[in-house]
Amino acid sequence: MAPPAALVDLQDPATNGHNPAKSAKVAAVPHTTAVPANGAATKQETIEEMAGQWSDFRFAPIRESQVSRAMTRRYFSDLDKYAESDVVIVGAGSCGLSTAYCLAKARPDLKIALIEASVSPGGGAWLGGQLFSAMVMRKPADAFLREIGVPYEDMDANFVVVKHAALFTSTILSKVLHFPNVKLFNATAVEDLITRKTDDGGIRLAGVVTNWTLVSMHHDDQSCMDPNTINAPIVISTTGHDGPFGAFSAKRLVSMGGLPALGGMRGLDMNTAEDAIVKGTREIAPGLIIGGMELSEVDGANRMGPTFGAMVLSGVKAAEEALKVFDQRKQECSEEMAV
Ligand code: 48N
């Protein structure tokens, strides 16, 4: 089916462009007709009809401010909408994307904010090991590939191979972005956690602190550039193993005294590592679930190297763990103040 043609009400002088309430009604129209705001159906070209007709080709006219408003009004209405989210997922690598997919599919009623520091989501899953193309997943993670429709070579009873890691990552990213209840904020870093003290003197998560990633990288050479915030009863952190941005929430929890110390990722052992990451994916502190390779830094789990089954199944488990505690954490947050 042709992708829905977004309707932007260009005729309304009052908005002169994007009106989040109105143009949110995206209608899927057959690809040969479009129905702009004035209701007059116009024929939509196909690329076959365009071929060879370039001499009098021209785009429909536009004013630059329409482009600016189409971007800014949507972005700022999203910031407003997701300022209070149900779940924040930090890190859109293979684990974070799998988590977002499972959560959004299971609970279309939840508002899910996916925060990714890089301009390009996907983390380490665009390539296999040592920049090679193929991606290996050990069974039973092939079930996730069938779930999202990624073809693979079934090598034998034990593992499968996706011909290019980018085929997996582009597919899961596309699936996640299609969910109406997921908003990806990329080029955006979580640079702190919103916390509350619990009755026993511990820490409960109540959201995340964000900034443009490029701003986060220049706090040392610019005067204070304060962050923004997103409140949420559940934060799922999948920021990868240690590195400039890695293991963010685990490291921050230790620095706040919410975790005694990092376990530190251990040496490579595929058979030990993948089981430990999937089975260990859990709520580390009230409101904070950690999955994927970030968990290896918490538990001192081995690394698995270039096999990705644990990332997707850790995502499946992270979504499950989040839904187990969601109502309780939501209740704790709502007792703070009604907003
Ligand atoms: O791909 P990663 O790094 O992390 P995972 O856990 O999704 O997948 C790990 C996997 O790629 C491996 O490392 C494989 C299996 N190898 C294992 C091994 O033994 O070497 O994705 C984490 C994402 C990245 O896109 C980061 O940019 C992002 O998280 N990120 C952040 N985003 C927002 N705010 C932050 N503070 C932040 N820190 C990291």
Give a summary of the structure in a few sentences.
The protein is of the alpha/beta class and 339 residues long.
Description:
GO terms for molecular function: cysteine-dependent adenosine diphosphate thiazole synthase activity; iron ion binding. The protein contains eleven helices and 16 strands. It is globular and about 70 Å long. Strand 6 and strand 7 form a beta hairpin. It starts with 19 loop residues before the first helix and ends in a 5-residue tail after the last helix. Helix 4 (94-106) packs parallel to helix 6, helix 4 crosses helix 11 and helix 9 (270-280) packs parallel to helix 11 (309-334). It has helices spanning 20-23, 47-50, 64-81, 94-106, 142-148, 165-178, 213-216, 248-255, 270-280, 294-299, 309-334, and strands at residues 33-34, 42-43, 87-90, 112-116, 135-138, 153-154, 159-162, 182-186, 188-197, 203-212, 228-231, 234-237, 266-268, 282-285, 288-290, 302-303. 37% of the residues are buried. The longest helix is centred in the C-terminal third of the chain and has 26 residues, at 309-334. It is an alpha/beta fold. Mean pLDDT is 90; it is low at 1-31.
SSE arrangement:
Layout: H1 20-23, E1 33-34, E2 42-43, H2 47-50, H3 64-81, E3 87-90, H4 94-106, E4 112-116, E5 135-138, H5 142-148, E6 153-154, E7 159-162, H6 165-178, E8 182-186, E9 188-197, E10 203-212, H7 213-216, E11 228-231, E12 234-237, H8 248-255, E13 266-268, H9 270-280, E14 282-285, E15 288-290, H10 294-299, E16 302-303, H11 309-334
Parallel strand pairs: 3-4, 3-12, 4-8, 12-15, 13-16
Antiparallel strand pairs: 1-2, 5-7, 6-7, 9-10, 10-11, 14-15
Ligand 48N is lined by residues 90-96, 115-118, 123-125, 189-190, 238-241, 245-246, 248, 268, 292-294, 303-305, 308, 311.
